[in-house]
Specification:
alpha/beta; Rossmann fold; 2 domains
Length: 425
Amino acid sequence: MAMTQPAIDLTPLDVRGDMSPVAGCGPRIVVFTTLFPNPRQPRLGVFVRDRVVAVAAHCPSRVVAPILTRLVAQHLDRGPGVPVPRMERHAGFEVYHPRFTTLPGVGRVADALLLFLQTLPAVRRLHATFAFEAIDAHYAFPDGAAALLLGRHFGVPVCVTLRGGDIDLLPRFRMRRRVIQRTLRRADRVFAVSQHLARGAVALGLPPKRLRIIPNGIDPHTFSPMDRSTARAGLKISMQQPLLLCVGNLLAEKGQHVLIDALDVLRRRGTVAPHLTIVGSDQWGKRRYTEQLKQRIRELGLASQVTFAGSQPQAALRQWYSAADLLVLPTFREGCPNVVREALACGTPVVASNVGGVPELIGSDAVGLLVAPGDVVGLAGAIEAALQREWDRAAIATVGGQRTWSTVGALVASELRALAEEGSH
C-alpha cells in the first residue's frame, strides 16, 4: 500500500497582527553566513545583509561572516583583493570575519566540519560578550551544517535559510547531499525563499512542520518608479533607444551569453535594435567568463550595442531599472532573484527564464514574460514581443512593491522569537 506524503503548506508567510519593531524585544541572534558583503566583495550577499538589517530592528544581532584564507582565495582565483579586517561595523552592527579553509574536489564534503572548527574560537569569544539565544544561518551547506554544530556546542536553536544552489545544485554531489539532508532533518527551523525551494527541501527529507516560506523583500525607499526621461537623461540615453538591462553576477549560470546570442538574432531579423547594458561583475575576480562574453560580442559585431556598466550600488540601480524598457534575466538557476523584485518595484517589466522561483515572481504576463532557459530564439522572440507591447508600469510597480524587507524582518523575527522560547523550555 502506497504511503501518503504529508501535505506541504506552500503559502508564503505574511504579517500577522501588530509586528512593529520594538528595540531589543527579540532574542539575541548570531547570523552565520559566508554570503555577506566585505571590503573584498562589497556586493556579495546583499540580500542577506538586507534581511539582517530588517531582523535587527526586532532582535539584537551580530554577524559571523567567515571568509577564505588569503592563500586559499588565491589558489581558487578569489583573491587577493582588498584586505578584510577581522571585525568591522557594517550597516550599524558588528560583523566578524574569521578565516576558514576548504579542501579541493571530493574533500569539499568536509567543508562544514572545517568551517565549524575554524570559526569556533571566534564564535566562543563573541558568546562571552554577547550571549546569543539562536543562530540564523544562510545556505544549507556548508554554512547551515556548520551552524548546527555551533548550535549544539552552545546549546541554542538553529534556523537555516535556503537560497538556491543549496537545494538545486549541491545535492547532485552524493556526499554533500547526505550532509544537506542531515542538516534539513536536524535544523530547528528552515526558511525557504521560494515555494520551489520548499518543495525541493521536503523531497530531501525536511519535515514539513519545521518549514516556513519567507520570500525576500525590497526596500521601497530605494526601489520605486523614477521618471523615465529623468532617469535616461542622467544616464545619457536617448528616449528613442530601446534599452535592455541585465543585472547579476557575471557567471555562466546567469546566462548572459544566451542574451548576447539573442541580441544577434534580433539584429539579423532587423525588426528591433535594442541596446543592452550589463550591470554586474565577477565577484570572485576570475574574469574568465567576462572575457568570453566580450570575445563573443566582438565575433558577432555587437560592440556598439552592448555596454558593461560594472557593479552598481542599489541606489544607482533604481535609475537603471527606471530607464530600461525591460529587465532580462536569462538565468539557468535561481532561488528567488531579487533583481526581478527590484525591477518590478521600479515599474519595469521582466523577461526571464522559467526556472526555480522566478515564476512565483512573474505571476502573470501583466508584469513579464517567461522563456525556457538556454532558448536563444525563444528569448529573442520574447524580447521582441515585450518591446512592442504597451506596459502599465504603474501597475507593475504596485505588484513589485508589495513585499518589503520590513515585512520580511518582522516575520523572521517572530519565528526566531518562537524558536528561542521553545529552546528555553
